[in-house]
Amino acid sequence: MLTTHPHLRTRRPSPTTVEYTVSTSPSPTLPLRLLQLTTSILRIIIGLTVLLLLYTKYLLSAFAPATHPIGPPETFSTATIFYILTLITHSRLGTLCTRLASITPYTLLLPTSFLLIHIILQRPHTTESLLVLRGLGIQTSTSSASYLSSATTRFIPTEKVQDFLVNEAFRGFEVRYYLVVVVEGEKEVVVVFPRLLPRRKMVETVWRGVRGCLWEKGEVGKG
Amino acid sequence: MPDHDGLMRIFWPLDLSRNNSPGIIVGWRNSGLDIFVVAILEVSDARNVENALKVGTLFRNSPHPITRIYELCGQSSIHVLGLANSPQEEVELLQIHATTRPYLRMPQISCERASTIQIIMYERPMPTRMQYISLNPISLALEDKAEIAVHAPESIDAEEEKEEMKNRAQTKHLVEKLKLHTVAKHPPSQKELALPRIVSQVNCSWELHEILHKNASLVGNRLRRSLSVSERVVESATSMRDFVIVTIWQIITLYLYPIVRRGFVIGLLCHRVAAEALLIVLEWRANPQYAALKDISATAQQVEIRLQQFCYWPMQYITLRKRKDDWESVTTSHPDYIRFYNSLWLVANDVIIGIALGSYIIDNSVWVAEFIGEILDLYSVAALRRTITWLMDWPAGLKLNNELAAFLGDLFLWVIDHWSSLVTALQPFLPHLIWFIGFSSFAGASMPIAVFSDLLSILTLHIYSFYVASARIFNWQYTILLSLFQLFRGKKHNVLRKRIDSCDYDLDQLLLGTILFTLLFFLLPTVVVFYLTFACSRMAIISLKAILDTLLACLNHFPLFALMLRIKDSRRLPGGIRFELKDTQHLTSSTASDSPAPPPTSHIYLKSVPLTFRAMFHQYFQLGQRIRKHYLSPRVLLCLATGKFVPPIHRKNLYSLQYSMLPARRARVVDMWNALTASAPTKEKKAGFESRHHNGRRFNGLNGRKH
């Protein structure tokens, strides 16, 4: 529902610059936006609940400070935060969490909460792109799996690009075609769209586009 | 110019003014249609600017010679590249017309020769804050170490090394093969080759922009009147005050400073000589194959690292001082700066933690000594004794051979008895030893850890020898069993052909062999049990030492300064560059009405990628991998299973991480003396140069006023 099959988007503002983006995120429609909004709200609620559970567990432990001041402090300071925290822990949800925290042992609570936080930080879509700039080079970029880190990019100057080709490989019980940049003087080739590995048709489109865009015409000589 | 495709590439700084006023665009021209904009000067006439650039008016009062910038950027001069916001005026064929508006985030550019345009917007790194961009990630370790680390351990882990070499040769072969697949070869165009130059142009851009802007008022037909009388009075008064200050300053620098400096240099050299003597002791080997003191003991190693650091710091500092004599945009010494302050900070940290730890240990030396004595007694003597007694008496219901178990157990118990008497003899000296450890920790927390690591190896010497002895016995029995098993099957191992041949044994041979085989086979569990116990305790000690070594590595090498920089200002730790394609839709709606439609333009942002955390801790990963490869490889497991001796990982391998901050060969005393004394005259020269420069500035100023 939230993701689709990988599809290709092309941005070509000028004939010498192309960006190919392969993404699993569907085109935004109103119901989809609503759905995304609700899932993100759900994520935030789950995350906050897990944090509250951990906090109440901490309050139950021996490390917790004795008592917090009851009355609301005058100015905004760390005391205010503690005051708000006490208010929350004394609310209905807070007491529920306290009860839950007192039942569950550490060995169960800690791994579960870390797992939950890890799950809610996962990005639903994968977006991978290839930017071709004539005269400069090729840049691959892959969005990261979680929201905590940003996309990883790799820029390869044109003079380092030895070749750009379509390769095939076994993956499980199928044959996948994938794009490869051969970099001069490096042991390993750079795979374009490494996580999505789109279908052959898309791969061919991108390959043709890159071939046409990256190098100037008329300068190709047999080597 | 061979620009077949009419692609024009323009590098445009993000912070250039976006107002409507006309100006002259100034910058580098890397090739015909490849230009790099540095500044827009708000002067009316382009010809004046061209003249000023030729004569050098625009570079007046520059702190360092401008030719250095030219050299860095790989160009011989700065050019006028075009006009901003003046579409009516004529320009040359290759020059551009730019339109900037306050509401436009990107300029709109047209050029007669260009059929397509790439505008690459870049943010100027601030050289005063040591920001810069680079194509390759900044390296936190010294480069000259990497090669040595690869070649050094050839003798130690010869097999692994051989395997690695083979793999490397294979990949090299594959890479060579891959080259044959490339059918078409593309000769690099001028634009492609210009990339490294462009990177340094980006780095120099801020300083150049500052100078150009400062001197922009000197260009052209601006009205310049001579100073009025009152202004002259003020100027001479300020110059008088300057003169007095300069005189006082010169008295201090001429008479006081050299004495202090000389004293400091002599102190440093004395320290250096003492360090050299100690280092020679630490590195002395009776035979090139033998281990030096620093290879055996962690303490010696730690002392050696500290001494090496002390030897390297003055040299490093002198190199860093030289940075001041050049433009700030020169980025070659920035990794050195990070390395220098990282090691300084780590040592300071180490000493601070060490003082806290040391004062605690000294205050509670009696209690700590008791505690350690107890642990020593409990784990290395009492627990071992109990285990051996347990093993002698059918452990876990396992029926072992009573006689052999009693023999082996008595043997080990006897040695343990001797050892425990030794330990009890040592007990009264333990508080002194603890006091010594506490005192040593004022030299840094790493010192007591290293001493403790050494102490651990000395105090568990008996376990080590038990392990070696039992492994030997087990290995003998194992090999004998193997060959007797062949005999039992009527075969034998042919050593010459390395295969199993069938063999006709005599009856008595077969009988004796079979009897021996049965005997040994039934005795095997007893030996295995003892061997397993000692092997496990040996592994426990090794892992404890590995933990201590990792702690040492953290204290000596943690990239603290780099981490802080990454959080504070990530542009000081460049990890490469990144381009971002921007949408150009809002631009088409606001095209200027009179000019023809601009050629298809793509707007691209050039950004610096900060160094990844993974790259920062790269060496730790390498270390972890090396340890894993050494101890968790199938070879080691096989060694353990057959009772062969598992060699401990060589210290050199383990510590290559710590040495990566130090040069492979330390500077000699003479070199240091030369560097320290040579740096003084350059400083004086620099001061003289500055004063001359000062005069020159005045002179220039007067000149400027005259015409």
UniProtKB/TrEMBL annotation, chain A:
Keywords: Membrane, Transmembrane, Transmembrane helix. The chain crosses the membrane at residues 34-55, 75-93, 100-121. Pathway: Glycolipid biosynthesis; glycosylphosphatidylinositol-anchor biosynthesis. GO terms for cellular component: glycosylphosphatidylinositol-N-acetylglucosaminyltransferase (GPI-GnT) complex. Residues 1-20 are annotated as: Disordered. One of its GO terms (biological process) is GPI anchor biosynthetic process. Residues 129-194 form the Phosphatidylinositol N-acetylglucosaminyltransferase subunit H conserved domain. It comes from the Eukaryota. Residues 1-12 have a biased composition (Basic residues). Belongs to the PIGH family. PANTHER family: PHOSPHATIDYLINOSITOL N-ACETYLGLUCOSAMINYLTRANSFERASE SUBUNIT H (PTHR15231:SF1). This is Phosphatidylinositol N-acetylglucosaminyltransferase subunit H conserved domain-containing protein. The lineage of its organism: Eukaryota, Fungi, Dikarya, Ascomycota, Pezizomycotina.
UniProtKB/TrEMBL annotation, chain B:
The keyword Aminoacyl-tRNA synthetase does not apply. This is N-acetylglucosaminyl-phosphatidylinositol biosynthetic protein gpi1. The chain crosses the membrane at residues 243-260, 344-362, 433-452, 464-488, 509-534, 546-565. Residues 683-707 are annotated as: Disordered. Keywords: Membrane, Transmembrane, Transmembrane helix. GO terms for biological process: GPI anchor biosynthetic process. InterPro entries: PigQ/GPI1 (IPR007720). Pfam families: Gpi1. The keyword Metal-binding does not apply. Residues 683-693 have a biased composition (Basic and acidic residues). One of its GO terms (cellular component) is endoplasmic reticulum.
